[in-house]
Design goal:
474 residues, 4-stranded antiparallel β-sheet, two-stranded parallel sheet, 10 helices, Outer membrane efflux proteins (OEP)
Amino acid sequence: MFLKKIYSITFVILLHNIGFSQNETSKTYTLNQCITIALENNLDLKSSVLSANTAKVNYRQSKANLLPTLNGFYNIGVNNGRSINPFTNDFVNQELTFSNARLNLDATVFNGFRLINTVLQQRLNKQASDMEIEEARQTLILNVTLAYLQVLNSRDVLALAKKRLEATNRQLKIQEDLYNEEVGNPADYADIKGQMTIDQTSILVAESDLNNAKLSLTRLLNLDTNISVDATDVLLDFDSYVLSSDEVFNDAVNNLATFKARELRVKAAKKGVHVARAQFVPEISFFGQLNTNYSSVAETFTEIGANIEETGDFVNINNQEIPVLTNETQFSGEKIEYLDQFDNNLNAVVGVAVDIPLFNGFRAKNNVALEKIRAEESLIALEQTELEVKNAIDQVHFDMETAYKRHQSLVEQVAAFKESFRVNEIRFNNGVSNFLAYITSKNNLENAKTNLTNAKYEYLLRVKVLEFYRGNVF
């Protein structure tokens, strides 16, 4: 579930192994600029938009299915050999050219409200897809914000590491002068050189962490260049968070796009049950047809006169056979034009059709059962989301309070270690104290500063997550 991913991003956003080159030219972005770029470039968000567009097309099609269907048919061909003349329905044994045209109209009058319920279901699916776009958008903004804060955290830790090295270099210069003058303990000079290598290693680690944090942010922005951050538009508020975890959860239920999307999916699944039940209901529809055809052997005949012809029969008159004559009318044949045949042969059909489901292998019954299962699954998914969000909020809220208390304690710790280091540095420089006391005091101070910085951003990260659950876009 994406909710688990949101929580994990807060704590594991630095788990990448690829870094940026320190010499690569970078561009500085504010948090708002990063969010704007991510909303334009992020591939996951684009994929969500395409899914929503599919839902919109399905919704449009479901509404279009309410309209009557009108389809045309046309063909033309040549027939050789014995066939039926489509004009006279007589058998002919010759080559003929034939053609047919047809126009069909079908209109569903009633089908158990299947089409109407399908429209309602697809509209709910479209609304759910729109909410899922908003869900993906909110999640992306949160991830960018968390990644941005992680870059700031890593940058501050790097700055502390560099200051630690500067202090060590200053002490190294003092000890080098004492060593050259053969004053004091020569081991102190060697120890301070060893401490300098430790501080240099700390800088390398901090630089690697910063580069990895930048890489995480860059991937969310779908950029291929190194970036730097500008914290001028980031509000670092350290006031104690006043809302309880239950209050945050109540706001999440009312405002978070995740819940709205799940609720719409539940409603859409319930409509699917009504759609499936329509298979038990007879379907009534109107239909109409216009038909016509053409035959190349079709002719019209015109009377052109009459001839007296022998019939082949005889009558006996006075023992004399007299042939029987008949008056035969003479006709002249003329081919009927193509368009004239289409006009003359036109016929129309209208009617009402009733499709009564009697037995279909229990298909309708099983489809209803499947839709009911889908409705139950969507309801369970909603309940599961509520449980996951509630548990995540409780955990983040607890960690947030712990980070705040830890930050307050570390503020006092830094102040105490700062005074301790000031005294030990004076004593060490005047030869009153040994190197071990000095370096212990120095490391205590530097570690406390680093821990203070980490605690500060841990608190801010968790506050951002809680505000996300409340439905606030940063």
